[in-house]
Amino acid sequence: MIIDGKQIANELRAVLQKSVAALPRPPVLGIVIVGDDPVIESFVRIKKKYGESLGVSIREFRFDSNISGEMLKNEVAMLSLRDDINGVVVQLPLPVSIDAQSILDAVPIAKDVDVLSHAAMVAFARGKAKIFPPVASAIQEILERHQVSVEGKEVLVLGHGRLVGKPVTILLQHNHAHVTVIDKPVADLALHVRESEIVISGVGIPALITPSMLSPNVVLIDAGTSEQGGHIVGDADPKCVDHARFFTPVPGGVGPIAVAMLFKNLVLLARRKDERPHA
């Protein structure tokens, strides 16, 4: 069964529109964009379209690709201090000359809708976070909607990156799954995949997972993205849909739901800000 991420995102949209309307003022999301990579621009357009459909104000802060890491860090820190900005997204990837984590760490927890700063990730890992990383939340939403419990299940996570593997692993462990993480090439990948009840991939290697690897009734969550022939593709061969109990395609699976979860985080942070006593 194919999981229709766009449909789920549309259902979440109706809920989020009401949440936004209930706030004293429309929340504002600031998106930091470095350079003019077409793939990055497409991700920004998706966020902007979804956010504006909720009544959220989107503000873009653009910088040239040759900006220094120190200058970008200062710009992000200053942006995060603005009282009229409820959340800040640093659109990834950044130029290779810039230490991405140092830039992400310039966003304080109170405005880190992506939960990518070290401080926010530590709070999440300790079970003290008020919001969850969007991709991890999206995967949890998919599993819960389809009555898939991870407790006691053999779950394989491919990749341990900041967007997918790392936060997903933490969330699975919080929910008492038996988690195996593979973050480097292994000769027996097919065996690991076949022995798993749930497979979650976020590597960015096309056709890494093929139908012959899958066990019957496996739940296959493809959260990997890479470009192939001018198109965004996932880690799993699309033919895997015929061999999996549930399958998320790329594009149109996890991605749209993750965008919805980012805006859910924004609403929660804006609500917490409005609930705080003012001097």
From TrEMBL:
Catalytic activity: (6R)-5,10-methenyltetrahydrofolate + H2O = (6R)-10-formyltetrahydrofolate + H(+); (6R)-5,10-methylene-5,6,7,8-tetrahydrofolate + NADP(+) = (6R)-5,10-methenyltetrahydrofolate + NADPH
Gene Ontology CC: one annotated term: cytosol
Domain Tetrahydrofolate dehydrogenase/cyclohydrolase catalytic as annotated: residue spans: 3-114
GO MF annotations, alphabetized: methenyltetrahydrofolate cyclohydrolase activity; methylenetetrahydrofolate dehydrogenase (NADP+) activity
Family membership noted in the UniProt record: Belongs to the tetrahydrofolate dehydrogenase/cyclohydrolase family.
InterPro entries: Aminoacid_DH-like_N_sf, NAD(P)-bd_dom_sf, THF_DH/CycHdrlase, THF_DH/CycHdrlase_cat_dom, THF_DH/CycHdrlase_NAD-bd_dom
The keyword Amino-acid biosynthesis is assigned to this record: yes
Domain of life per record: Bacteria
Name of this chain's protein: Bifunctional protein FolD
Assembly and oligomerization: Homodimer.
Gene3D superfamilies to which the protein is assigned, alphabetical: Leucine Dehydrogenase, chain A, domain 1 (3.40.50.10860), NAD(P)-binding Rossmann-like Domain (3.40.50.720)
Biological pathway: One-carbon metabolism; tetrahydrofolate interconversion
Lineage: Bacteria, Candidatus Lloydiibacteriota
Keywords: Amino-acid biosynthesis, Histidine biosynthesis, Hydrolase, Methionine biosynthesis, Multifunctional enzyme, NADP, One-carbon metabolism, Oxidoreductase, Purine biosynthesis
Function recorded in the entry: Catalyzes the oxidation of 5,10-methylenetetrahydrofolate to 5,10-methenyltetrahydrofolate and then the hydrolysis of 5,10-methenyltetrahydrofolate to 10-formyltetrahydrofolate.
HAMAP family named in the record: THF_DHG_CYH
Binding residue positions for NADP(+): G159, H160, G161, T225
Residues annotated as domain Tetrahydrofolate dehydrogenase/cyclohydrolase NAD(P)-binding: 134-272
EC number from the UniProt entry: 1.5.1.5, 3.5.4.9
GO annotation terms (biological process): L-histidine biosynthetic process; methionine biosynthetic process; purine nucleotide biosynthetic process; tetrahydrofolate interconversion
